[in-house]
Structures are given as structure tokens and as C-alpha cells.
From TrEMBL:
Cofactor(s) the protein needs: heme
Organism: Aquilegia coerulea (Rocky mountain columbine)
Keyword Oxidoreductase found: yes
Swiss-Prot/TrEMBL GO biological process terms: secondary metabolite biosynthetic process; sterol metabolic process
Protein name as annotated: Cytochrome P450
């Protein structure tokens, strides 16, 4: 992953062993599968559980959406979607707009050079703090940011909990995050709020009731799933934004098309007006460019499942308890699905219905499709709007390589030279 040779390793494996092969991964008997049929099997089969490696389970919790099945999955997903569905999120476009404007004022304005990836992580994390917890800028948010970075460092480390190891530091960080989120939950429970739902994710989840009038999710389920949403929303959006900024620096045609689209929106508003849901709907080309970045540089390289019983795929028996691994790039970079797959071409997404099902899986698929994809769309579009209308930039680093730690990370975090536009 660090050497960024994982894609070639998988391609070589397929050439040698075919579309289904077995190996040992993280000490567990594992089957690697790929292709459209494999993606469909992974996202729709009731025979598979979503079991992450022990390190991820330990750090995010065992009651997160991706770790549960059947009725629990339906219940937790339904609870999350009460906040993450478009008709609710459209109320928060203005709030996200304000947070993003503040980010550019604090971290970009007056600077000659910036390093993109850490700043995009800061931006997406601040948006999550605002929308998930309604947590204002200050000491508590700073602590949460520090602990979350420590948590991420142990994600794919060897799960041996010994002092001074990366995994041990991550366990300490996740424990501190859990305590803070529990405190926030107790604070919200102690306050009577007339318009309780939809103020933030935690308030929304606390407001939900089951048939017995008990809270639909337990406090621990709320903590685990908030932590998982933090991880998913933080890394995915920051990677897309970073690699889109990197690409636009060297692609004047795509940059000009995005700039034209965003300038038309900017000139239709006065400087004090916030972006609206209707403005986002006009950003069609910008979003197609983001989808193309997700195709070429999927933030999540591979996914893990575990068989609940003896299973059959592709004519092979997969025993109960075995791990199943799939990788997004195996269909994203398949030239029979996406012609000239290495070419950056947003027009591929002009008619998304023309893309075969379960071939573009940047957000997953079927019942396992990412519930936060609309949240990510708003983050990305609003950020790109202010970036291209307020700044020009060029890369400081000629090395255009990247590695995975475990997310795609450009050389040196992508330092760029920026210049603020003079706007009338």
C-alpha cells in the first residue's frame, strides 16, 4: 500500500490465478474475487457479513453499520438516513457554506503556499464537528481533531496492544473519543429541545423511538456509528478534494469548464449570499469531475466481508468464516467497462445509466451503498466553488506520485502555490 503497488499486485494475481483465488490475509483464510459479478455478490448477498480486520473493528466499534447484518443493519441504516437523506441535508447547505468560507479565510487567505491534504482533512473534520455534534470551534474540537488523527494511524496496523505501539496509541485515542461523544450525548439528553430532530446527527439519533418508545439506537450504537461516520466523511471527501485540486492544476480544459460553471453561479448572487441546494443542482460538470476522481483514485482501496455459512461463488466453495476481499479498481480500471480507463474523462458520467450495474462502486452498491454520499457531494461542491472562484494555483512538487497510508496520499501532502483573485 505504501509503495502504491497494490493494484499491480492484484492484477498480477488475477493473471496468474483467475477471478477467484485464495490467500491468507491478516492471519485469516481469505478469498479474493473481482469483476461485476463479484461486486454484486459482495453488496447484495445475505451470506456475507461485513467484517473488517480486527484493527478496524477495535478502533471503530462492533456496532457500526458496516459490521451488522439483517434487521440490525436495516435499523441502524434507517436511523442514520433520517439525518443524511437529501431532503434533510438541504437545510444545512448554508451552514456548510459558512464553515467552508471560514476555512478559506483562516487557512488560505494571505498565504503564498499551502499543503492541500492536511487542510482538506481539517476542513472536512470541522464540517463533521459542526453537523454531527454541533460542536463550535474551540478546545474541545481541537482535542477531538488530535485524537481522531491518532486513531487513524493504527487503522491497518498489526493489532497487538502493547505499550508504545501505533495500535496502542490508536486504542487510547478511540477511548478518549468515545468518552467525549458519550459526554455530548448526556449533555443533549439533559436539555429539552423543542425542535430536537435534525439539529445535528446525535440529536437526530436521540430523537428516534422504537415501537416500545425506547431510543431506537443504544448510546453505544450512537457512539460507534458517529465514530464511523467521522472516519468515512473525513477521509473520503478530503481525498477527492485533494486529487481534484491536483488534477485541475494540470488540466486546463477541465479547469476551464468547472470555472465557467462556478462563475455563472457566483455572478448570479451577491457576495453575502450563501449557496443553496438549487445552486448545487447546477454544478453538474463539477460533480462529474469529482466522480471521475473517485473512479481513478477510490479512497477505500479494498473491502472485507466474512462468510456466515458455506458459500458458492464462481463455481468455488467458500467455507464458513472465511474472509472475502474485493477491490474497487478492478472494475473502475477495466477497459471493457471504462474505455481508456487511465484517461480523465468526466463525460463518462453524463449518462450514469449507461454504466453497467455494480461496476462503478466508489460509494458501494445495493443495500450497502454509502448513506453519506449526499453529505460528501455537498462538501465537495461547495469547497470547489469557493476554491476556483477565489484562487488560482500551481503545484510546487514535480513528483506526481502518491502512496496509501491507507488512503491515497500525494507526495508531501500536495503543496501548492496559490494566488487570490481580485474580485470586484
Amino acid at each position: 500500500m505504501k509503495a502504491n503497488t497494490a493494484e499491480k499486485w492484484l492484477e498480477d494475481r488475477v493473471k496468474k490465478y483467475g477471478p477467484v483465488s485464495k490467500l491468507t490475509l491478516f492471519g485469516i483464510p481469505t478469498v479474493f474475487i473481482h469483476g461485476q459479478a463479484a461486486n454484486k455478490f459482495v453488496f447484495t448477498s445475505n451470506i456475507l457479513n461485513t467484517k473488517q480486520p480486527i484493527s478496524i473493528q477495535t478502533l471503530l466499534g462492533k456496532r457500526i453499520l458496516t459490521e451488522v447484518s439483517d434487521e440490525d443493519h436495516k435499523r441502524i441504516r434507517g436511523a442514520l438516513m433520517t439525518f443524511l437523506k437529501p431532503e434533510v441535508l438541504k437545510q444545512y447547505v448554508g451552514k456548510m457554506d459558512g464553515e467552508i468560507k471560514k476555512h478559506f479565510e483562516m487557512h488560505w487567505q494571505g498565504k503564498e503556499t499551502v499543503t492541500v491534504l492536511p487542510l482538506m482533512k481539517t476542513l472536512t473534520f470541522n464540517l463533521l464537528c459542526s453537523l454531527l455534534f454541533n460542536l463550535e470551534h474551540g478546545a474541545r474540537r481541537e482535542k477531538l481533531t488530535k485524537w481522531f488523527e491518532q486513531l487513524l494511524q493504527g487503522f491497518l496496523s498489526v493489532p497487538v496492544n502493547l505499550p508504545f505501539t501505533r495500535f496502542n496509541r490508536s486504542i487510547q485515542a478511540t477511548s478518549r473519543i468515545q468518552n467525549m461523544v458519550m459526554n455530548i450525548i448526556h449533555e443533549k439528553k439533559s436539555i429539552k429541545q423543542e425542535a430536537y430532530p435534525h439539529k445535528d446527527l446525535i440529536a437526530s439519533l436521540l430523537s428516534l423511538r422504537g415501537n416500545d418508545n425506547a431510543t431506537l439506537l443504544s448510546d453505544q450504537e450512537i457512539v460507534d456509528n458517529v465514530r464511523a461516520v467521522m472516519f468515512a466523511g473525513h477521509d473520503s471527501s478530503s481525498v477527492v478534494l485533494t486529487f481534484l485540486i491536483r488534477h485541475l492544476a494540470n488540466d486546463p480544459v477541465v479547469y476551464a469548464a468547472i470555472l465557467k460553471e462556478q462563475e455563472e453561479i457566483a455572478t448570479s448572487k451577491n457576495s453575502e449570499e450563501l449557496l443553496t441546494w438549487e445552486d448545487l443542482a447546477k454544478m453538474k460538470y463539477t460533480w462529474r469531475a469529482a466522480l471521475e476522481i473517485l473512479r481513478i483514485f477510490p479512497p477505500i482501496f479494498a473491502g472485507f466481508r466474512r462468510t456466515r455459512e458455506d458459500s458458492e461463488f464462481g463455481g468455488y466453495l467458500i467455507p464458513k468464516g472465511w474472509q472475502v476481499v474485493w477491490a474497487a479498481n478492478m472494475t473502475h480500471m477495466n477497459d471493457s467497462i471504462f474505455p481508456e480507463p487511465s484517461k480523465f474523462d468526466p463525460s463518462r458520467f453524463e449518462n450514469q445509466a449507461s454504466i453497467p450495474p455494480y461496476c462503478y462502486v466508489a460509494f458501494g452498491g445495493g443495500q450497502r451503498i454509502c448513506p453519506g454520499n449526499e453529505f460528501a457531494r455537498i462538501q465537495i461542491l461547495v469547497t470547489i466553488h469557493y476554491l476556483v472562484t477565489q484562487y488560482t494555483w500551481k503545484l510546487c512538487c514535480e513528483d506526481n506520485k502518491f502512496s496509501r497510508h491507507p488512503i491515497p496520499t500525494p507526495t508531501q501532502g500536495l503543496p501548492i502555490q496559490i494566488e487570490q483573485k481580485n474580485r470586484l
